[in-house]
Design brief:
Elements: H1 3-6, H2 8-13, H3 16-23, E1 28-29, H4 45-54, E2 60-68, E3 95-103, E4 108-115, E5 118-125, E6 128-133, E7 138-143, H5 149-154, H6 172-182, E8 187-197, E9 200-209, E10 216-224, E11 230-237, E12 243-253, E13 271-274, E14 300-302, E15 309-313, H7 327-342, E16 347-350, E17 353-359, E18 364-368, E19 372-376, H8 380-389
Parallel strand pairs: 1-8, 7-13
Antiparallel strand pairs: 2-3, 2-12, 3-4, 4-5, 5-6, 6-7, 8-9, 9-10, 10-11, 11-12, 14-15, 15-19, 16-17, 17-18, 18-19
């Protein structure tokens, strides 16, 4: 299990694409050592990979600054508000935002998005999850499922798919070498000296996709020289010189936060809503389950590594629910508004059919006239090729 699976706070701070690439998502790690500096010993990229996999946190808190300029147009989506200084969680796709993060184990984590007129928090404390928006004076409470022995036995994996004992690595370094041997085709990963992030010395890894259709030029990851956790991630596009996405700690503390940080009591005047139960293995209501692999509701994944493209069916709005106040009605309204916006995008066509294209700096999205949405961090030609192959 990687540090990103054990520590949910890190998933808030580090883009998943980088976490995957670091711990086994498709890279060839170069053997050039990070040059010693800031009091750090020289480390190869393979050694840094082992460091990240072995990192263990008792706790963490800090301030994170995220900057996004993905080339997205303003979307007229119901309930969404964006831009620098917004405290709406939907605004994180663009602009500059400041967040506070607290982590005290896999079942205690909190993220607060700070805006000029308020804040929005996501808080987990045991099985309870709260989503709170101070500006709207609303709080939604969810309860995570418990996983008892019966649940675990019912969902145990097929052991026949696991490697034999003789194929298992016998040390962290051995595990790293096996991972590197298996993920060669997609990415070159090298070291690039050291950096200082949040006042702490850090090693830097550079990830460069090999796919010609990838819009990503490189991803730079700064790893704390002592605690071995990512402190900063920068994503560079091929079309611009400055980072199109950056998330970095401006201050960080590796001591365990006080338990009071995770105890949420709705302030006076807050409207509290009980969210729909999050499905567990024993849930019987089909509405609570995510689409199963192979079902019509599941996206199709085409390609591998940085060239991966997702193809999914666009839900059809239910006109009969448009006047209700339900979550599904809000979703239907959002879809309807988005469809109106899509008609303003450029029209494209090919052997796969026709549709409307949205091109960002590090992603492309296509809505076909037959109701499919196609998204990837690739050129439009990469989307067309994926559709032709589907």
């Amino acid at each position: 299990m990687s540090i990103f699976e054990r520590n949910p706070a890190l998933r808030w701070a580090v883009p998943a694409v980088t976490a995957v690439a670091l711990v086994g998502g498709g890279s060839a790690i170069g053997e050039l050592p990070a040059s010693a500096g800031d009091g750090l010993q020289a480390r190869t990229a393979a050694q840094l990979l082992v460091d990240v996999q072995q990192a263990s946190l008792d706790g963490l808190s800090g301030t994170v600054v995220q900057k996004s300029d993905l080339g997205l147009p303003d979307l007229p989506i119901a309930g969404a508000s964006g831009g620098t200084g917004s405290s709406d969680l939907t605004s994180l796709v663009s602009g500059t935002h400041t967040m506070r993060i607290w982590f005290a184990g896999p079942d205690k984590a909190r993220m607060a998005l700070l805006g000029t007129l308020g804040e929005s928090d996501v808080i987990r404390n045991g099985q309870d999850v709260w989503v709170w928006a101070s500006k709207d004076k609303t709080a939604t409470h969810y309860v995570l499922p418990t996983h008892d022995a019966a649940d675990k036995s019912a969902t145990s994996p097929d052991l026949s798919a696991f490697p034999t004992p003789t194929a298992l690595p016998t040390s962290p370094q051995d595990a790293a070498e096996k991972a590197l041997a298996a993920i060669t085709p997609s990415t070159d990963v090298t070291t690039s000296g050291t950096a200082t992030v949040a006042g702490r010395p850090a090693y830097e890894l550079v990830l460069k996709p090999k796919e010609a259709t990838s819009l990503v030029a490189q991803v730079r990851v700064a790893i704390d020289g002592t605690e071995h956790v990512p402190l900063r991630v920068q994503v560079f596009a091929k079309s611009v010189a400055d980072p199109v996405f950056e998330v970095a700690f401006s201050a960080v503390d590796f001591s365990r936060p006080d338990a009071a940080q995770f105890a949420f009591n709705p302030p006076p005047g807050t409207t509290v809503v009980e969210g729909k139960a999050i499905a567990g293995p024993g849930a019987t209501d089909p509405a609570l389950h995510a689409p199963q692999p192979g079902s019509a509701g599941m996206p199709t994944v085409i390609g591998k590594g940085w060239g991966t493209v997702l193809v999914a069916k666009v839900p059809v709005p239910d006109a009969s629910a448009a006047t209700s106040g339900s979550t599904s009605a809000t979703t239907d309204k959002t879809i309807a508004q988005l469809m109106k916006f899509v008609t303003l995008l450029p029209t494209v066509s090919g052997s796969w059919g026709s549709g409307h294209l949205m091109a960002g700096t590090v992603f492309s999205a296509l809505l076909t006239d037959d109701g499919r949405i196609v998204v990837g961090a690739v050129t439009p030609e990469g989307l067309y090729a994926a559709l032709a192959a589907s």
